[in-house]
Amino acid sequence: MFSARPEDRISALCAEADFEQIARLLTTHAFSWDIERALELALFRTYAMPSISSLLARTGEFAARPAKRYDDTELLLSEPLENGLDSARGRAAISRINEMHGHYRIANDDMIYVLGTFVLEPIRWLDRFGRRAMTPHEQRAWTNYYRALGERLGIRDIPADLAGFAAFNARAERERRRFAPSNREVAQATLDLLLGFYLPRGLFGPGRPVVLALLDPPLREAMGLPHPPRALRIGVPAAMRLRRLVLRALPRRRRPRLVTARWRAGYPEGYEIAALGTWPAARPGACPRGGALSREGRGSAAR
After folding, report:
1. For residue 267, which phi and psi values (nearest 5 degrees)?
2. Does the N terminus or the C terminus of the chain have fewer Cβ atoms within 10 A?
3. Total domains, the chain
4. Which structural domain, as residue segments, surrounds residue 220?
């Protein structure tokens, strides 16, 4: 069972031995909304790399079914995090990711870069906008979780620590980030998808510059997206920092906010892990139906 203040448990756990529990508490309790938003914006950093965006564009999923592509990615990454890397559901999700990756020629450096965005962007977001920043202890555990995930995904030469990921991604962006039409294609489809979570389509026009104000200028340029007005570039981050002050006055979350338990229009009756993703054709029945966690799944997510 969770204590009345599950976030308080983090400091008593070991960043080397208990990194899965710490990462789970950070994501489902301490910073649930913030980490989800940070990982959404982390996607844009990957789209600014032509070697990544071109592959994503070739699958056709962003043009044909952007919501499914987003849901599948989020669910496949959340199953191991919420249930455990070596749980039945975690292993099934990782196996499904590996199955899909195995049908494409993906450079190991691109895999490291994407993994690095999952490590770095939530930490950076919380530094800027969170109720508080991640502590060094939490940063080590967060990094260790994604190192362990990367190992299970067959990624080689994974950086040993947070500084290593930061150096690798900074070098990759200096050397390989540049504009390509596929960058803009994938970024625009994702931008409109994210706006659709909050706004009717008629408001996408004024909504786009608000989201773009949260991205740095080199990133916008590499995706071929316009720079928002100066007022928004100043005002949107300022509003997010004001939100931080409000959050500090609110009570802490006591119940887990589980991504895998969320109702989704694309999966109104739940989902099968083996049917997530785009390629190859999935094998139905390989894992119990999801959508809301099973009793066993909920228990492991609440450890």
Report:
1. -135, 65
2. N
3. 1
4. 6-301
